[in-house]
Design goal:
Blueprint (H helix, E strand, L loop, with lengths): L1 E12 L2 E13 L4 E5 L6 H8 L7 E6 L2 E2 L5 H11 E5 L10 H11 L5 H11 L15 H13 L5 E5 L7 H18 L2 E6 L2 H4 L4 E6 L2 E7 L5
Parallel strand pairs: 3-8, 3-9, 6-7, 7-8
Antiparallel strand pairs: 1-2, 1-4, 4-5, 9-10
Helix pairs in contact: 3-4, 3-5, 4-5, 5-6
């Protein structure tokens, strides 16, 4: 489902060239749940951005399904993301001028679904927000906003879901409830999940743990929970 081969990312700074990732070889199969863990600055979010086609590598190649992302321009990568990918971010990234219902309807409407309103309402009910359909993001708690974001991410039933520190802005109790929901939906939909986190407890809930250190893979193994 996802493959990275000899992946590298470098950026030019005033102090010279900074190597963020180097020599990343990674394959993720359909329906796998994979955590990418490491300390801040280890390259986790950069790797996620490259795997999702949000950025291009400085070296190496990335495949999503049968697409080689290196061969595509930004419009082409956007089409692949629209076809295959859902996202959940730490900062929720809801549109402030849209209600919860409208935020979830948006990707469905872009995909041309005729019954977007009913589908979105059903998803929000699934995440426990049936009474919040007409509320705007500023009227929702952080946990509620992240549940809207999860409903939106699953709306088009993506083959792959990328989650970048999905509980980073939530307290522990709220974060645990949100993650329970994320994994429950992921099991129901049979989605491949790639989750970036510095939280070891959260990482352990995935089937597989890929550990980064200074931009390199230093560990890749099934977790104890799923051994």
């Amino acid at each position: 489902m996802i493959a990275a081969r000899n992946l590298g990312k470098r950026v030019t700074t005033a102090a010279g060239t900074l190597e963020i990732l180097a020599g990343i070889d990674l394959e993720i199969g359909a329906r796998e749940t994979v955590a990418v863990a490491g300390v801040s600055g280890s390259g986790k979010s950069t790797l996620l951005g490259l795997l999702a086609g949000l950025d291009l590598p400085s070296s190496g190649e990335v495949f999503l399904s049968h697409y080689r992302l290196n061969d595509l321009d930004e419009d082409g990568r956007a089409r692949v993301r629209g076809e295959l990918v859902g996202f959940v971010f730490q900062s929720f990234q809801l549109l402030a001028g849209l209600t919860a219902l409208e935020n979830v309807m948006l990707p469905l409407e872009l995909a041309g679904e005729q019954d977007a309103r009913a589908h979105a309402a059903g998803l929000l009910e699934r995440v426990g927000l049936a009474a919040r359909l007409q509320h705007y993001p500023k009227q929702l708690s952080g946990g509620e906003q992240q549940r809207v974001a999860i409903a939106r991410a699953f709306a088009t039933e993506p083959a792959i879901l990328f989650a970048d520190e999905p509980t980073g802005n939530l307290d522990n109790q709220t974060g645990e409830r949100v993650i329970d929901l994320l994994f429950a939906l992921n099991r129901d939909k049979g989605t491949t999940l790639v989750l970036v986190t510095h939280d070891e407890h959260l990482a352990g809930r995935c089937e597989r743990l890929v550990r980064l250190e200074s931009g390199r893979v230093v560990g890749d193994a099934r977790t104890v929970q799923h051994a």
